[in-house]
Amino acid sequence: MDSPDAAPLVPALSPSRAADFLQCPLLFRFRVIDRLPERPSAAALRGTLVHAVLERLFEVPAEARTPRTALSLLEPQWQRLRASRAEDAAALFSTDEEVAAWLAEARTLLERYFHMEQPQRLEPRERELRLEVTLESGLRLRGYVDRLDVAPTGQIRIVDYKTGKSPHPRFEDKARFQIFFYAVMLWRELGEVPTRLQLMYLGDGGVRWYEPTEDELRAAESQILGIWRDIERTARSGGWRPRPSKLCGWCDHQPLCPEFGGTPPPLPEPAPAL
Ligand code: SF4
């Protein structure tokens, strides 16, 4: 059993790292402890670009938030991203035609956004809100909320943009976990239960939303604490086991994974703070 006085090995947890651990403890180790590099992904880079455009869209006056304005923001945001992620951009694209095709897909996502809601009618309280909250247990949670809307009645809505397609109901758990993670942070920060948690899938126009109760947030918080304790136990024992699934197809670390005949490198000494 862990000593209650043991120093926490995991001082902070984000929804993505928690989801990594749930998916596969060995993947978590490769990403967080070994910090192994991964290949850049065109889809992830496009997601970053579309998020940046949607964030900037709310900087212009409400009446100017049109598809035309959003599309006009695409090129300057791409140039900014290209400058800050020059290596990734060079690895992903070898010709201007490849960039143009990739940008066309980003354009489609932005156009679809305008079929899902009318930004002219919204005044978000926050965009790209960085949250960091320490729970009573001492665990720090952190993450970025894409958008926070507060109605004149005081009702709070957390909005998360996804640039992929909406998942089959059987596979909604990951996205639900992530947005409940944000809701727990906000609840603990403000002392108020957010009224609505909204996932917007720009890949197909699907919207999923939840109206959490305080009991559901308490349950989500317990789940997060359970994951944290599992991570700490695993870190102390060094038993970072692979958990194969269909998602292995997207894992860059197959050559080092015992499930695929590989051998993980020795754990770094001393272990970095997680
Ligand atoms: S290949 Fe699969 S089992 Fe192996 S580390 Fe990656 S996600 Fe885990």
Q: Identify every distinct bound molecule in the structure, by name, code or SMILES.
A: iron/sulfur cluster
Structural class assignment: alpha/beta
Radius of gyration: 20 Å
Helix percentage? 40-55%
Q: Mind summarizing the main beta sheet?
A: 6 strands, mixed
Q: What is the CATH-assigned architecture of the domain at 126-223?
A: Alpha-Beta Complex
**Helix count from the secondary structure assignment:** 8
Q: What's the number of extended β-strand segments? A: 6
SSE string, helices as H and strands as E: EHHHHHHEEEHEEH
Q: How far do the termini sit from each other? A: 20 Å
The CATH topology label of the domain at 126-223 is Lambda Exonuclease, Chain A
CATH top level of the domain at 126-223 is Alpha Beta
The rough form would be described as: globular
In the predicted model, the low-confidence regions spanning at least 5 consecutive residues are: 1-8
Strand content: 5-15%
The overall pLDDT average reads 93
Task: Please describe the structure with a list of short key phrases separated by commas or semicolons.
alpha/beta; 8 helices; disordered N terminus; binds iron/sulfur cluster
Task: Please explain how this structure is put together.
There is one protein chain. With 274 residues, the protein is α/β, with parallel strands linked by helices. It has 8 helices and 6 strands; from the N terminus they run E-H-H-H-H-H-H-E-E-E-H-E-E-H. Strands 1, 2, 3, 4, 5 and 6 form a 6-stranded mixed β-sheet that branches. A hairpin with a 4-residue loop joins strand 5 (196-201) and strand 6 (206-210). The structure holds iron/sulfur cluster. The site of iron/sulfur cluster has 14 residues, from helix 2.
